[in-house]
Amino acid sequence: MTSFTDSIDFAERVAGVAASRWSKPSTTPVSEIRQLTDNIYRGAAFHQSTFQLGPLWNYLLLVEEAPRSHFDVLVELARHGSVLPPGILCLAGSGRQFHGFRGRPWSAPPGNIYMAVYLAPRHRVDHAGAAFTVLAAVSVLDAIDDVPALRGRAGLKWVNDVLIDKAKVAGVLAYTQSEKDAIVGVVLGIGLNVETTPHVESTPFVPRVGSLHDFVSELAGCNQHTLFQSLVRALDSNYSSLMGGDYAVLLDRYRQRCVVIDRNVTLCSETSVGDEKMIARGRVTGLSDDLALEIQGHDEPFLKGRLILDPDLPA
User: Fold this and answer.
1) Is 46 exposed, middle or buried (0-12, 13-18, 19+ CB in 10 A)?
2) Residue 43, helix vs strand vs coil
3) Which residues contact 159 (CB under 8 A, 6 or more apart)?
4) Which of 58, 167, 198, 298 could form a disulfide with 208 if both were Cys (CB 3.0 to 4.6 A apart)?
5) Among 192, 188, 53, which Cα is nearest to 113's?
6) Which residue, among 121, 17, 122, has the nearest Cα to 62 in the 3D structure?
7) Tens digits of per-residue pLDDT, 10-60?
8) Cβ burial 222-241 (10 Å sphere, 16+ → b, else e)
9) Rounded to whole angstroms, how far apart are CA atoms 280 and 48?
10) Separation between Cα atoms, residue 276 and residue 307, nearest integer Å
């Protein structure tokens, strides 16, 4: 795997690659990834190294402070017809103009994981609209589960939030491109608060945010480096399962860790806070294979909306 970084200190701290293994600064990468490096490094010099991170990955681009979302960069290049090699990881140490689902602002202070991934399946994937959200979400759970004190504690709030003790610690995004029946390109975005809890204004949809450090007493095994390594391994393994036709297995794991099933919820429209309208209210009875939300008393499941977890009713 070929890797680039604009900060050797950041690369050593997060990727674990010693300073001696990086080349002198350059602005000339291999041609097949030139468009991407031009967009990410914007003419600034970067160092280059080669090391193994797993069979899925061909390139790793590290940026200590990103001026814009790497997820957006990859999506824009894919949409404009750029031919990107498969197996790309982009990791930022912090950044500006980051966002979550439906373009909602995402605070990105240092100390956390801000990852964008490009994959090129080039074959049919069942329920592709949901499958890659499931892939990203389950992989985040696997990475968190690698921290012994957090094993089994994280859950999923429909559709793409990861919670620990009702505090949001991560979110995922997925974008897919198709040609005929084949998925030819996938961009995943993952934000995971590891060492730093962002300052985020409370809303009914996200009452509280947190970081993994808020829930562990032993910090040595819970940092950017360990979570980066765990997340990369989980993505590698779960992507292999998905490509092997095991979407049902990943979906079952998503459902098992979904905190909204058998809960009373309020589903609201996808508008700005304060302007939203209630679409449905009731107990969630399940999730369809496409991650549509099934709510008691409603004949049709819901694919869109913002969810509020209503208070638990006394037994």
Assistant:
1) buried
2) coil
3) 101, 133, 291, 293
4) 167
5) 192
6) 17
7) 999 999 999 999 999 888 888 889 999 999 999 899 999 999 999 999 999
8) bbbebbbbbbbbbbbebbee
9) 52
10) 11
Q: Which amino acid makes up residue 149? A: A
The third-level CATH classification (topology) of the domain covering 2-256 is BirA Bifunctional Protein; domain 2 (3.30.930)
Residue showing tokens 């939300």: 293
pLDDT at 136 over 80: yes
The conformation of residue 101, written as its DSSP 8-state character, comes to G
In one letter, which amino acid is 89? Answer: L
Residue type, 143: A
Residue type, 234: A
Query: Quick one: tokens of 117?
Result: 């991934």
What is the identity of the amino acid at 308?
A: I
Least confident residue range of 25-34, 40-49, 119-128, 250-259: 25-34
What tokens were used for 67? Answer: 């001026």
Q: What are the tokens at 161?
A: 């939030």
Per the structure block, which two tokens stand in for 51? 């090391």
Domain boundaries, the chain: 2-256, 264-309
